[in-house]
Amino acid sequence: MKWQVSFAAFSGLFFGLEAALWLLLTLRTEKVSSRTKRVIAVPLLLGVLFVPAIFSCPLRGFELTYSAFGIGSILRLVDLYWIIPRREGRQVYLSPDQLSVEAWAPLRRTKGRDGTAKSTAAEQEAEGRISASDKKSIWRLAVSVLVWYFATDVLGSWLMTFGAQEVVDLVAKYPAYFALWSLIAMAGVACVFNLYGRVSQLCYILFSLRTLHYDPDEWPLVMPHPYLATSISDFWSKRWHQIFRRTWVSFAYKPVLRSTQAFAKLYAHHIPSARHLIASMSSALASLSVFAVSGFMHEYIALVSFQREYYKPGRQMLFFVSHGLAVVFEAIVSQSFTLSFPGRKLLGWIWVMAFGYWTFPWFFQPYMRDQIWHILSHHPTVCKNFVHNLCKEGWIWCGKDM
Questions:
Q1: Chain-centre distance for alpha carbon 329
Q2: pLDDT of 369-378, one tens digit each?
Q3: CA 364 → CA 176, 186, 210, distances in Å?
Q4: R_g (Cα) of the chain, nearest Å
Q5: Is the model's pLDDT at 60 over the cut of 80?
């Protein structure tokens, strides 16, 4: 049983702990040693972990968002306080500029496609290295915000016509309709994340006061049309959000890759012909570790965010590990066969949709029972009445929860 508190109290407690942890990193080690920082960080991290588990607020969407942000932040902070300093032999410290990079890293691309450091649009403009055709005006960004807002509003208004039992019935009795509903729901989620990304980008540009232009490559879409993915790998590595990418890569992928490669080197010289296989296995295990960490994160989110009767232990982990195995399977197939023929992308899309349809209920079950899409009712709407009138007139397929 959780303690009900106001939204202001819930937010103040949660972000107070978060702010203390991140600001503690910026204190110079001459004033506060690395060891002292770690000692102070432990109870603060436990606070971030348990606040969403102990307290609840009236706005369900924020409770879910805070639990997701909290567990992702905990893993990243463990990385910054313990793993990275020990691995690189340096102190527990972030400069204000490094803290700014960390804060915006989930949304902003600070490295080029070749992995080298990437200048910001403001820096490129000051140095004359960005052409007029590459620069985009802030007004174009404002229009993009409006487009994503209206798309979110329209799809959210439509999704809110469905109750939990209606969606359960679609799963059991009308699989084709559930597949269509899932695609539309996925598009709605993508719209929400892209709206969040564009609003955050707009705030960054306005408050930085450095330029009224931006480089689109620096600010990619948070979720570039996941419903168009042609492989499971394409879905997770390019089209689903990468907000926790730095955490997954640094906390899971790199340590597992290094460990398996170091272990493999002990035996590779005995079996030279197996070096390629060992390298592939190291990469596969590292990829699976990312999905396992993601599964753990979502187990926590489901546990603390939903009612106990809705949460089924292990379902989130099963979903993510199965997708990790699918990514490994795709890598094996692509390395073993040359897959280049007409209709390959269409076949790949069908494979993604079929595999997603089979596994999606494992992930979505607690969200479905809790009618998580109804959190969109908290945002200002201008299209709800229009969409619901179309539903009542029978112009579009919809639910009965109006």
A1: 23
A2: 888 888 877 7
A3: 17, 11, 43
A4: 23
A5: no
